[in-house]
Amino acid sequence: MDGKPQVTALRSGFTTGACACAAAKAAAIMLATGESVQKVMITLPEGGGATLPVEKVERVGDGAKAIVIKDAGDDPDITNGATIVVEITPAEGDEIVFEAGEGVGIVSKAGLSIPAGEPAINPVPRRMISESIREALGVSVRVRISIPGGEKLASKTFNPRLGVVGGLSILGTTGIVRPFSCQAVKQSIVCLLNVALANGADRVVFTPGAIGARAASQIFGINHEQIVEISNEWGYMLDIITGKEVKKIVAIGHPGKLAKLAAGHWDTHSKRSPTAAPYVIQMAEQIFSRAMPESETVEGVFGALDRGEMEILGNSLAKKISEAIEKKVGGRLEVAVALVNMKSRLIGIYGKMDEWNKN
User: Fold this and answer.
1) Could you read off the pLDDT of 241-284 as tens digits, one per residue?
2) Hey, is 310 helix, strand or coil?
3) Environment class of 155 (CB within 10 Å of its CB; exposed 0-12, middle 13-18, buried 19+)
4) Residue 131: alpha-carbon gap to chain centroid
5) pLDDT for the residue numbered 77
6) CA pair distance 19, 195, nearest whole angstrom
7) 335, 333, 337, 359: which is closest to 348 by C-alpha?
8) How far is residue 78's CA from residue 188's CA, in Å, rounded to a whole number?
9) CA dist 150 to 100, 162, 209, 311, Å?
10) CA-closest candidate to residue 122, choices 20, 40, 8, 220
11) Given this model, what pLDDT does residue 355 score?
12) What Rg do the C-alpha atoms of the chain give, in angstroms?
């Protein structure tokens, strides 16, 4: 790749780790030769190289600083266009020391790939940066990475839940951002699960999003660190959790999402699985022995019932979902299910929920 990421139908981009690596190499070249480069070649973790443009390079005291503007290609990356600033200064010893500057977070919880108290610069970017600096400079340095405005951007990411405080993480396992890939989302969700387990949880809540998370906290008093928002990745995360030290899983969410599991659809995204409304309508008709009005949504199906019928259908549906999850995990975990409406009010439950404690 030369200049900018390779152009395809959807253009790939560069990770924050790759951008920080390029900036670090440009700063190292300045420190070693006095040359202000306009672009640098970096080595990608999976082999091959990439050339990134450098916005600015300058000497700063006995060190040097370089800036690279992140280009995420056609991916809707929240850090696209962010300014990645790397300053390097000579250091004693044989190691390269990493520091978090403005907008780069600090890890505050166990369970991530970086120990608590360290800058949130992941292992692969650390290795890339270290190798680039040694290639260009050959001596030990302090590496300070900053992302102006990063703390504000971080509030819109998983970082606050992961225990990364004060800013963004420097990420990337390949150096390349592939547009609209689900892999980054999956990795973030697994990180949330690992943090929950590292903080002593042997029971976790899986929920599609904010509605279920709010219900888990407000209705059942579940500690927020045990709540993992997994979006649409039910099949993936249930496969992951069977290899973890977990005794029980509770699924909490709107039946519009969770009923898809009972129907055998483990990716609940609307583009990759059909609506659960026909499944729930058929179930209601079997339970109540009458025709149900047509509805495009599961919320509409429940809305056509009185309170008593709603509870009957909700509990029956929760049982079906629980049975589907138990089968998916091979019976290795205890399972409970709670269904809530759009207002996070309980409309169905199956399994034991009384052992949860408030924060």
Assistant:
1) 998 989 999 999 999 999 999 999 999 987 789 999 999 999 99
2) helix
3) exposed
4) 27
5) 81
6) 27
7) 337
8) 14
9) 11, 16, 24, 46
10) 20
11) 64
12) 24
Burial of 296 (0-12, 13-18, 19+ CB in 10 A): exposed
Mean pLDDT within 60-83: 92
Beta-ladder partners of 52 = 40
**Residue 60: strand pairing partners:** 63
Q: Would you give the end-to-end CA distance of the chain in angstroms? A: 50
> Nearest-CA neighbor of 57 among 46, 72, 67?
67
Query: What totals of helices (H) and strands (E) does the chain contain, helices first?
Result: 11, 16
Binned at pLDDT 50, 70 and 90, residue 188 comes out as confident
CA-closest candidate to residue 88, choices 45, 32, 42, 35:
32
45 is written with which tokens?
């973790």
CA angle in degrees (0–180, nearest 5) for 355-237-18? 125
Instruction: Fill in the amino acid letter for 359.
Output: N
Residue 317 — very low, low, confident or very high, per pLDDT cuts 50/70/90?
A: very high
> pLDDT band at 333, cuts 50/70/90?
very high
Structural domains in the chain, sorted by start: 13-177 (3.30.2110.10), 183-350 (no CATH)
Torsion of the alpha carbons at 158, 160, 161 and 163, rounded to the nearest 10: 120
Which residue in this structure is represented by tokens 């249930």? Answer: 238
Longest dimension (CA), the chain: 83
Across the beta sheet with 346-350, the strand order is: 227-229, 203-207, 248-253, 334-340, 346-350
Tokens of 152: 């504000």
Contact of 267 with 234, CB cutoff 8 Å:
yes
